[in-house]
Amino acid sequence: MSRITDVIIVSPSEGDAMDPLTRLDESRAWYGYFNLVGERLWETSGKSTCCKVWVGAFNHLERSALLADLAALPWWDPQGVQVLIHDEEDSCAGLWMFVGGDLVEVPLPMRFRSRAPGGLEYGLLQPVPEGPGAD
Questions:
Q1: Which of 6, 47, 70, 79 is deepest in the core (most CB within 10 A)?
Q2: CA angle, corner 53, sides to 23 and 72, nearest 5?
Q3: Are the CB atoms for 9 and 83 separated by under 8 Å?
Q4: Are residues 61 and 30 in contact, defined by beta-carbon separation less than 8 angstroms?
Q5: 71-102 pLDDT, tens per residue?
Q6: How far is CA 19 from CA 23, 37, 70, 132, in A?
Q7: Is the pLDDT of residue 42 over 70?
Q8: 95: β partners
Q9: Least confident among 32-36, 60-64, 66-70, 126-130
Q10: Host domain of residue 116
Q11: Who contacts 12 (Cβ-Cβ below 8 Å, separation ≥6)?
């Protein structure tokens, strides 16, 4: 059975830190690679982008291994890097950013991460219940 996770990486445009992760490397603890989104796909009014975006869809992603590999890259501006991870059952993508040299999940308003069900490495990102009986 598949379990798909979409990952989007946003970074200031300088540098080529992501190059090693744009090629398949079967020695990694996670399987797959990222694709750089071409500027022509989102360039408007003849203006160039001020950031780079990489995307990937992964089956049974080892999230902690991916985050460790991303943290180990030679980022030009680590504090400008945003990692969006959307598991197929999450209500929205979670956000990871560098804090003290580590990629950590940034709390999102009106969302919480539930306990990890049945063998999942991370819990699911869910909306905070609202309305009567929500507590």
A1: 70
A2: 55
A3: yes
A4: yes
A5: 999 999 999 999 999 988 888 889 999 999 99
A6: 8, 13, 11, 50
A7: no
A8: 84, 106
A9: 126-130
A10: 4-127
A11: 50, 51, 52, 76, 77, 80
Q: Is residue 135 part of a domain?
A: no
Q: Does residue 66 lie in a domain region?
A: yes
Q: What is the pLDDT of residues 105-126, one digit of tens each?
A: 998 888 878 776 665 567 777 7
Count up the domains in the chain and report the number. Answer: 1
Question: Per-residue pLDDT for 36 more than 80?
Answer: yes
Q: Minimal CA–CA distance to 89: which of 116, 121, 114, 125?
A: 125
- Judge whether 67 and 103 are in contact, CB under 8 Å: yes
Tokens representing 24 are 């398949």
Q: Which pairing describes strands 51-59 and 94-99: parallel, antiparallel, or unpaired?
A: unpaired
19: left (phi over 0), alpha (psi -120 to 50) or beta: alpha
What's the confidence (pLDDT) of residue 31? Answer: 95
Residue 80 within any structural domain of the chain: yes
Pick 37 or 121 by higher pLDDT: 37
